[in-house]
Request: fold
Amino acid sequence: MTGVLYDRVALIGLGLIGSSLAHVIRREKLAKTIAGHARSAETRETARRIGLVDEIHESAAKAVKDADLVILCTPLGAYGKLAEEIGPRLKAGATVSDVGSVKGAVVRDVGPHMPANVHFIPGHPVAGTEQSGPESGFAELFTNRWCILTPLPDSDAAAVARLEKFWRASGSNVEKMNPDHHDMVLAITSHLPHLIAYNIVATAADIEDVTNSEVIKFSAGGFRDFTRIAASDPTMWRDVFLNNKDAVLDTLGRFSEDLSVLQRAIRWGDGETLFNLFTRSREIRRSIIAAGQETAAPDFGRRPDTPSPREAGRGRGPREGAGG
Amino acid sequence: MTGVLYDRVALIGLGLIGSSLAHVIRREKLAKTIAGHARSAETRETARRIGLVDEIHESAAKAVKDADLVILCTPLGAYGKLAEEIGPRLKAGATVSDVGSVKGAVVRDVGPHMPANVHFIPGHPVAGTEQSGPESGFAELFTNRWCILTPLPDSDAAAVARLEKFWRASGSNVEKMNPDHHDMVLAITSHLPHLIAYNIVATAADIEDVTNSEVIKFSAGGFRDFTRIAASDPTMWRDVFLNNKDAVLDTLGRFSEDLSVLQRAIRWGDGETLFNLFTRSREIRRSIIAAGQETAAPDFGRRPDTPSPREAGRGRGPREGAGG
Reply:
């Protein structure tokens, strides 16, 4: 047990990440008091009902009062205005961090509003599910995942070390890098995959020759894998793409180039190019499994929620299929 | 229990689908004898060692002798030659089917070699995992999945009904459609998703500014979801793309058009277009879950293979994250 790292923590935003932080802070007793803020009355009401945090504030400025650690957990588009609002109310010596999926834009939007006597250390836990809202959080979300911190050149080393300790206590591994590199790494590992997934779901929904009911029925052929991340929060993802434009357009350009090569190989019946490219991909998945970032069970270890009567009572549940 | 539907079944090819068929035929006692053929000596040896089928034949022609049902379970590219080889050895009145992911090409390649006294009924179980080989099969693979049959205009109704009964007994739902429609439906629900997944894995592997080790480490941001289907069998998938060229190029053209719209929205900061498109996708995933083709558990219900000591012994295992 790490023990209390910050007497008072303020979580600004109570969606999947904010609520998961509340759970893990409590489980690990990393703070004495957790204050929470959510813009929507409905979210505040739900948070109150499930006892998510110790105090719920309608005003972000009031939520950060006397807080030793403030974490912005809203979609990125709200950061600038929030920073302007809370800046003057921050406690001297407080640490301000965030969980946003883009870091250059956070430095740009939040940095100017931070008083000189506050430690501003942007962060990004690379973790999540396709679900959102204050009831979607759980304490294990960060276990074995990576949290990236992007301290600024003049960040106080002791404040960074304490924040690092906080994330490790929440179950994460921690890596530090500069904001621009973070934004390029995440463009390829997260932002482009989400864009592609959203896009293929739209393409499938619009195709005239195939009904939506057929797309749904036969989705086990591979399509359904894409729908998971395409079910992620639309506001959050709109803001990611608006705030990481250059890196996303760069990786998207590369993706489209590579796709043209495959397209040409299919058109000209070039089986060798296809085979060679398809062979490379297995190794990367093996490495991801070896690094503990993925399960080795076939089909992600999917289990159907309602096994057919035929299967009930068997020792091993049916594994669902995808492929073909 | 359905009981014996075909006295003797020959499985030509003993990979994921062939070996899963062997398991389910035995579990449901759908045949008295299962004969198997595999081209590779290694596969035959493995099948023998695990007792997968009753007889293993080095020659496909010998495997189909006296068989009442013959199912081609090899990659599509091998069908033509196999059909030529087994055609003259088929038992009068036998049913010949297959499990290939393309149906027009099967009619084209196999049809001409089928004697008039044989029932040729192409089929495709829309099921699979990213794993391959004779040890990857399991009897539950087809449970609650869809098997598509594409009978020809002159197919014998009783033979089609018996094959349908066979697939239902193996746990599948059955739908019938014509081969061309099958190929368009699968192009969007399976072939395009696989192509996109293979492509993004290649793009990520080649990007110079981000190391492969970073791609692996931070893959929980979304990328890892794509690596599952991109780990599928390269030979099988090469053959799918070579044999469903027109439908794949059609859907790929639509996908690229749609992607250009997103690209433009990002470049011009058009958040409304992004938000509206991202909002549509959730409904499709909900429908897939409601149709029993996907689990409702967050993150596919993934479980890490080796929970950290912190988690061991808890009632609820940690759920792994993806997103952000």
About this structure: Residues 306-324 of chain B have pLDDT under 50 and may be disordered. The first strand of chain B starts at residue 6 and ends at 12.
